Amino acid sequence: MDNSGTQSIDFVEYQNRLGRLFTISPGQVHHSEFMGKNIRMLIFRPGFAETNPRSTQLVNSVFSTIERPPYLDCSDEGFPYLESIYTLIREECEREDCDWDLVESLINSFLRYALRFAKTPSQKGEQKDARIVQLTELIELHYREQKKCQFYSDALALTSKRLNELVKADRGKTVTQLIHDRIILEANRELVFSTKTVKTIAFELGFDDPAYFSRFYRKQKGETPAEFRHRCLDSAI
After folding, report:
1. pLDDT, tens digit, for every residue of 141-164?
2. Which CATH number fits the domain 130-236, given the four candidates 3.40.50.720, 1.20.950.20, 1.10.10.60, 1.10.10.1100?
3. Angle at the Cα of 79 (from 126 to 25), degrees rounded to 5?
4. Is the pTM of the predicted complex or chain greater than 0.70?
5. Nearest 5°: CA angle at 72, between 71 and 73?
6. Are strands 12-15 and 71-73 parallel, antiparallel or unpaired?
C-alpha cells in the first residue's frame, strides 16, 4: 500500500501509508472512496487460521483494536518478508490442487511477521494500566445489558469515582461515555449492514423503549437513527 487513498473503518477515516496493514474483522464497517494504488488484500474466514491455541492467540493479537487503531505500520525491514509470503499465498490459492493446510500455515507466518515488524509507538517509561484493558473487554461483553458505571467498577473492585479517574486520564472520557460509544458503534453497524427496523435494533441493544433509544441516539449523534441510515444509503449510491 502506498500513501494515496483512505480507508473508513467503523466510521473513522484512516490515511493509507506505505507499509500500513489494515486489520478489519467481521462485523466492522469498511468503506473507501478511493482505495489507492498497490493494494494487497488477504481475506480469510473466521476460524480458518485458528486451529490451535497459539494460532488463535496470534490472530487475536493482530486483529485486536482494544489498545490501538485497526492497522499495523510495518517497518521497511519487514517488506520483503511480507511480500514474499503474500506471493506464496496467492500462488498456492491459484493452484487447482490448492493445499489449504499450507495456505493456513502461510497466513499464520504472514501474521507473525506482521507483528514482528510492526512499528510500536515509543512509550518512555509509560506502562499501560491493565484495568483499562479489562474495562474495555468488560464493556465489549456487557454493553447491551449493563449501561451503568457501577457494574464495571464492582467487577474491577474499584469505586466508580476511582475508575472514572483512571479512564479520564487514559482516554479523556468517562466510563459512561465509553459505554455510549460502544452502543452507538453497534447501532451504526446494524443501521448500515442490516435491514432491521430501528425498533428491533433498539431492543437488541437493551432498550425497552425504541423512542428512548432514538432520543439517546440523537443526543449522541445529532441525528436520528433513520436519518443516519438514509444518509449512508444516499452516499453509497
Report:
1. 999 999 999 999 999 999 999 999
2. 1.10.10.60
3. 65
4. yes
5. 120
6. unpaired
